[in-house]
Amino acid sequence: MNALPFLIIVPLFGAFSMPLIKLISEKVRDIWAVIISAVTLGVAADVFYTIWKTNKIIVYTLGDTTPLGKGVGFPIRIVWEVDLLGALIAVTIAFVSLLAIIYSLEYMRHDTGLDKYYTLILILELGMLGIVITGDIFNFYVFLEIMSIASYALVAFRNDTWEGIEAGIKYMFVGSLASSFILLGIALLYGQYGTLTMAYLSQYITREPTFVSKVALAFILGGLLFKSGAVPVHMWLADAHPAAPSSISAMLSGLVIKAGGVYAIARILFSIYSISLNIRTLGWIIIFFACLTLIVGNAMAVIQTDMKRLFAFSSVGQIGYILLGIGIGLAAYGTDIGQIALAGAIYHTVNHAIMKALLFLVAGAVLHEVGTKNLNELSGLARRMPLTSFAFLVGAAAIIGMPPLNGFASKWLLYESSALYNPFLAAVAVVGTAFCTAAYIRVLFTFFGKESEKVKAAKDPGKAMIIPMIILILAIIIMGLLPWQINESIMIPTAKMLEESGKYVLAVLGG
Amino acid sequence: MIPFQFVTAFLLIFMGIYAFLYKRNLIKLILALNIIDCGIHLLLISLGYRLENGVLPTAPIYTGYETLKGTPMVGPIPQALVLTSIVIGVCVLALAMALTINAYRHYGSLDINKLRRLRG
Amino acid sequence: MENDMGLIVKTMARATIPLIGIFGAYVISHGHLTPGGGFQGGATVAGAGILFLVVFGLNEAKKRYDKNLYSALEGLGGLAFLGAAMLGLSIAFFYNILWRDKIAFAGQPGTLLSAGYLPIMNLAVGLKVFTGLVSAMMAIALFRRWKK
């Protein structure tokens, strides 16, 4: 039997049963949340392994055995369609969510209403998993909204502080407007072609690319750039991610902007539109936004005094690298350069999810123990919190792209492909990294500087907060030791699979 | 024939976007979001009504379908989509209201320009 | 604090609240036959609850509202929906096995006991929407009180 539907069933079951489980006791509720997310990770790993082994796209139809209608040659049902990219992101989502939930066992202990917190966090995970497995564009919108609403509520979860509320309101208004744009685009596509299945839509668009389909693409792309925090519209991200509880920040920065932003952009561009458009122009549009994002995000990170805000701006910058990879992959479609760039983008998506989750967990530990995230008051933390500081050191080195760690390989792929495609882009990417290095070196000097009054009483946090960090450090180091093996065996096939939109169409329509 | 329903739908969407950009009161912003959604819903629902041989289709009500046999029916998918979208809209509305009440408690004002304490 | 309405409104509400509830129940249970369904019917029943809140005041409503019970019922509604969707999991998620294999709710199309899992799902969704909307409304209504 296929394991794919359990990717949705398990978190949904966990979320719905949480109000009942809570009635037993608080301890059981916490353990239940961990069990559910661990099982989800298992299912995601199984799905990924199946697809990686067989190198075939899984198509799952809701409600029947075949997506095609009775006696007609086109799909009439909702289909889920998972290729290697979707499965890879799903594994990352399940992995980081599990660690965030373990982390919040201790981090959120003093808050009230935790059953709602765990329900929301499971629903957030469910929404992201749904986005990466769906093959129906309206289903995609529904999962996007599930994810967005859960994340608005989680950003504003601590409603007794003004930061959470203000950030939540800004995030909600911007996010809802972006969702409306995406829905408008989907409505236009449906009006033009009369179908919602991505594969079938792709076939139609290839056959007759009308003006309306381009307008719809503009709306959808605009909405998704909003959601991924690209530069002209990144301000909500810098407010929302620092104000959320740190375990949520890790999920927002590590996963939400990937699943609901970058992944969706890649899916829409490569699987639905792909060859029907002038892909060079489109690629350069994405590259333009990517360069802007890369420079502005990393440069803004340098001047921050708030640690979590610095990390949030750094996320904006790293999104720029991923968009750069996607843009080059699109502009140089079909060549080796494009494939390398795409592999680099996918690799960086996974790497950044792990690194940024680690960094936000470190920030949460500091906030939990010292009570401030202002960098001017945190100097000399390394002596008091050695493990946390070591975790920060690893995360920062990885995000800059130091050779023995995982960030190096993905950044190298991006530099290499951009230098081969257009040297100017490589220069921009290196300048972005220089800013990024400056920002993190600054935090590093703070951590290892002279001890200040505030940090005298600080100590390393408890087990539930340390273990997720250690697991993430191990993941970073292990991925860093085998960079090219991972690239050869996972990332390149993923990029290849994403590029071949014909197979994506055929998997649903048969033939 | 001018497709009046599409004109109205886009008018609603642009009205909503105008209000979203130029109004400063949080409640009005929530209303603006709802107006945009209404416009999109109108657009979607009117996509189901397509003239077939000059006959307007009827709503797909199952009971009593014998009397309507042969007449074209409204596309059921847009209605399902709009229903889903309305449900999502209700969720966003409830959350927005709750956040607005919270904001009023913390800031004593509904002006979005006053919500400017996050800086950096 | 006085926050309920006058005698006329109360009498009218006593008469109409059961009717609204019955109409909502009708919309839920006929969701697979007529326009409407779980969400619409649930929202209608929740309308009755909100009318009660407005007419009889918050204190009276608080006495009849149990937070844990409502959130448990909401979870139960969701679980029932998920269970109905999982019935046909041996073939596909959301496969309507009750209808296709004529196990239950498999009467003539157009009658009440037909359409397989749809009536079950409508009931589950109706329960979830009703409890959820009433909970949300109560949370918003109670909020004003804390500020004073």
TrEMBL record, chain B:
<protein>
    <submittedName>
        <fullName>Membrane bound hydrogenase, MbhG subunit</fullName>
    </submittedName>
</protein>
<dbReference type="InterPro" id="IPR039428">
    <property type="entry name" value="NUOK/Mnh_C1-like"/>
</dbReference>
<feature type="transmembrane region" description="Helical">
    <location>
        <begin position="6"/>
        <end position="22"/>
    </location>
</feature>
<feature type="transmembrane region" description="Helical">
    <location>
        <begin position="29"/>
        <end position="49"/>
    </location>
</feature>
<keyword id="KW-1133">Transmembrane helix</keyword>
<keyword id="KW-0812">Transmembrane</keyword>
<dbReference type="InterPro" id="IPR050601">
    <property type="entry name" value="CPA3_antiporter_subunitC"/>
</dbReference>
<keyword id="KW-1003">Cell membrane</keyword>
<keyword id="KW-0472">Membrane</keyword>
<feature type="transmembrane region" description="Helical">
    <location>
        <begin position="80"/>
        <end position="104"/>
    </location>
</feature>
<dbReference type="GO" id="GO:0005886">
    <property type="term" value="C:plasma membrane"/>
</dbReference>
<dbReference type="Pfam" id="PF00420">
    <property type="entry name" value="Oxidored_q2"/>
</dbReference>
